[in-house]
């Protein structure tokens, strides 16, 4: 059975899908103990970002909130949909408008770190006590200012070779 995946965007200033994104983020937090934020922080950051969302029918299965400087504030994929390329699609959407993109990942979140490194992100530094609960983070970056065509060719070459 083929599943139709629809891409939607909440532009900065819009929060049409913020509630669905919050619900997905909270489901992941309850299950995995990551993506811990206060609701007011999340909604404010979501509203200021460009949010790329992936829907199967009317179910949100993944989203990425990206600031105008290319920083990924949130990247979440429903646990039952991981490994299907949705995270890669969201990172590719973020790359469309930026020479490089960056993010933080909890130092103990091995799944996230493995995902980002698989896509070619490089750890730039470790930040002690980055999270409210005192947890450490890694700051990661992808991109070197190459042209869009070069970045996509390299991105998809790594994705195909690594699978």
UniProtKB/TrEMBL annotation:
Gene3D superfamilies: 3.40.630.30. InterPro entries: Acyl_CoA_acyltransferase (IPR016181), GNAT_dom (IPR000182), YpeA/RimI_acetyltransf (IPR050680). GO terms for molecular function: acyltransferase activity. Coiled coil: none annotated. Residues 15-145 form the N-acetyltransferase domain. Keywords: Acyltransferase, Transferase. Its EC number is 2.3.1.-. CDD domains: NAT_SF (cd04301). SUPFAM superfamilies: Acyl-CoA N-acyltransferases (Nat) (SSF55729). This is GNAT family N-acetyltransferase. It comes from Halobellus rubicundus.
């Amino acid at each position: 059975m083929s599943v139709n995946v629809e891409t939607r965007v909440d532009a900065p200033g819009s929060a049409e899908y913020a509630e669905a994104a919050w619900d997905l983020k909270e489901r992941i937090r309850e299950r995995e103990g990551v993506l811990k934020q206060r609701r007011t922080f999340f909604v404010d950051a979501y509203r200021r970002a460009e949010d790329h969302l992936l829907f199967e029918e009317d179910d949100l299965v993944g989203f990425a909130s990206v600031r105008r400087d290319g920083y990924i504030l949130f990247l979440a994929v429903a646990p039952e949909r991981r490994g299907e390329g949705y995270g890669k699609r969201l990172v590719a959407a973020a790359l469309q408008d930026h020479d490089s993109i960056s993010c933080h990942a909890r130092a103990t979140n091995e799944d996230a770190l493995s995902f980002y490194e698989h896509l070619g992100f490089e750890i730039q530094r470790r930040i002690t006590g980055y999270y409210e609960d005192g947890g450490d983070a890694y700051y990661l970056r992808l991109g070197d200012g190459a042209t869009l065509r070069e970045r996509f060719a390299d991105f998809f070459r790594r994705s195909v070779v690594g699978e």
